[in-house]
Amino acid sequence: MQIRLGNSESTHCGFLRNPPTIRFMRHYADRLHDAVTRKKTAALVGLDPRLDQLPEDVLAAARSRGGSENDIAASAFEEFCSRIIDVVAPLVPAMKPQAAFFEQLGPAGCLALQRVILKAREAGLVVICDAKRGDIGSTAQAYAEAYLAGEDPDAAIWGADSLTVSPYLGDDTLQPFVDVARERGAGIYVLVRTSNPGSASFQNRESDGQPLYRHVADVVERLAQETRGDSGYGIVGAVAGATYPAELAELRAAMPSTPLLIPGYGAQGGGASDVVAGFDKNGLGALVNSSRGINFAYRREPWKSELAPDQWEQAVEAATKAMIAELPSA
Questions:
Q1: Could you confirm whether 40 is annotated as catalytic?
Q2: CATH 3.40.50.300 holds for 30-48+85-326
Q3: Among 132, 281, 304, 321, the one annotated catalytic
Q4: Which H or E run contains 3?
Q5: DSSP alpha helices (H): ranges in 16-106?
Q6: pTM for the model
Q7: Which pLDDT score, from 0 to 100, does residue 329 have?
Q8: Which ranges constitute the DSSP H helices of 89-227?
Q9: pLDDT by residue (tens digit) across 278-288?
C-alpha cells in the first residue's frame, strides 16, 4: 500500500492552510483480485471498435453529430464502447480498450479513448490499456506517467489502471514502468508468449538452452516477486496466449507470483479448456480476454438469427454471460 500526499498551502507563519490529503494507494493485484472475486469471474472484455462492423444505429447517430470523417468515426467508437461498458460493467471485473483503433483516428480518436477509459473507471471496472508501449530511459518514464494512473484515475492523462508493455528493448526498459506502477497502485502486463500465429518466430528462438519467452518470463517473475501484495501476486503481469495452452501451463508453473493476461480466447480460436491452466488452484491469477467475440456478437450465430441488428447490446450481454459460464469460477 502506497501513501500519497495531496497539495497543501502554507501561510506566512508556516501553518498549513489546506492540510495535505492522504491517499492510501491500494496494490494493483489486490484490487484486481478483489474485483474478480466480487464478480465471480475472470472474464475480461476487450474493446476493439472497427468502423466497418459497427451497428448502423451507432453510425447514424455519429453522422448526425457531424464533423470530419475522423470526428464521426471517433464519435461512433466512443458511443459504441460506452454502451458496451453500460452492458458489461455489472458482469465482469475488467475491460481492455485497444489503443490502436482509437489512435488511427488522430486527436479525435485519442480523446475518445480517454473518455472511454474514464467511463469504464467510473463504472467500477479495472481498465487495462492495451497500447504495448516500451522504450528506453526517459521515454519509458514518459509512457508510464502518461498511461499508468493506478487507483486514482486523475493521476495520469489516460487514466488506466494498467498497461501492456513490450520488453524487447531489454529488461532495464521495464523498470520505469514498474516504478510508476508501484507509486500509483498500477500494474503492467509484459508481452511474454503472445497469441498471434507468427509469435514463435522470435519468442520460441532458443537461447542458452531455452526459448526466448522463458528468459522474458524469468525477468517478469522476478519483478512480480519483488512487488507482491497481499494476494501473493505482483504488479508485474505477463501476456500469455490461450492459443498455446501447453506453454500457458508451463508459464503458470514458472511464474507463480505473476498475474496473467490471456488473449486468444474466442475469435482467435482459444476455448475454455485452453485457458484453465492459466489459473491457480483457487481459480485466480489470470484474466481471459474476449474482444471481437463480444463486441460484434450481433454479427454471428446464434445471436445473428435470434436478434435484430438494433438489439446488438442484448447480443453483447448474452455473449458475455456465455463466456462467464464457460470459464472457471473465481
A1: no
A2: no
A3: 132
A4: strand 2-5
A5: 28-39, 56-65, 69-88, 99-103
A6: 0.91
A7: 76
A8: 99-103, 107-122, 137-147, 175-184, 200-203, 212-226
A9: 999 888 999 99
